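Query structure, 170 tokens:
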């Protein structure tokens, strides 16, 4: 374990590769396939240019012009954040619209955040959280009416608990 938290380990599978590509596109400004390939290699995923090209096509990744004029890959309606930038205003606004009607309570417990929803809504709420690049959040687990958000540490869980509550209260 590093000082910044646990490192993500992925199996050598197509699904894991696609997930790594999606994560890289969500957390970095990727301007070329060779840049993306280097990021994947750093994660232990070696991929040919042809396979990477097919993967990007299958994911419907497109090159789009960012506010600063840079042309970078993006997937679907995702908001490409600057290096080190968290969810961003647009992502927070989208999350707030969803969470406002679906979150009934939020509490931190150790490095976990427990989010309660009406019956049947937890998987949708978890999906909304998972689709954002949220610093300090490793992922979610959802049941029928409860989402567990796994954070890198206890302090992050307290911060994200307060943050999610504020988004749900807007």
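Result returned for the query:
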């Amino acid at each position: 374990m590093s000082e910044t938290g646990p490192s993500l380990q992925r199996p050598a599978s197509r699904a894991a590769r696609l997930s790594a590509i999606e994560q890289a596109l969500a957390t970095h400004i990727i301007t070329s396939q060779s840049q993306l390939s280097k990021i994947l290699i750093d994660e232990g995923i070696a991929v040919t240019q042809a396979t990477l090209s097919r993967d990007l096509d299958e994911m419907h990744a497109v090159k789009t012009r960012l506010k600063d004029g840079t042309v970078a890959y993006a997937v679907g309606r995702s908001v490409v954040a600057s290096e080190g930038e968290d969810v961003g205003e647009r992502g927070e606004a989208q999350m707030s619209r969803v969470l406002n009607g679906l979150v009934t309570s939020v509490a931190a417990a150790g490095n976990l955040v427990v989010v309660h929803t009406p019956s049947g809504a937890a998987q949708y709420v978890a999906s909304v959280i998972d689709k954002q690049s949220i610093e300090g959040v490793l992922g979610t687990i959802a049941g029928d009416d409860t989402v567990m958000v796994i954070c890198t540490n206890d302090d992050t869980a307290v911060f994200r608990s307060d943050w999610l509550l504020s988004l749900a209260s807007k």
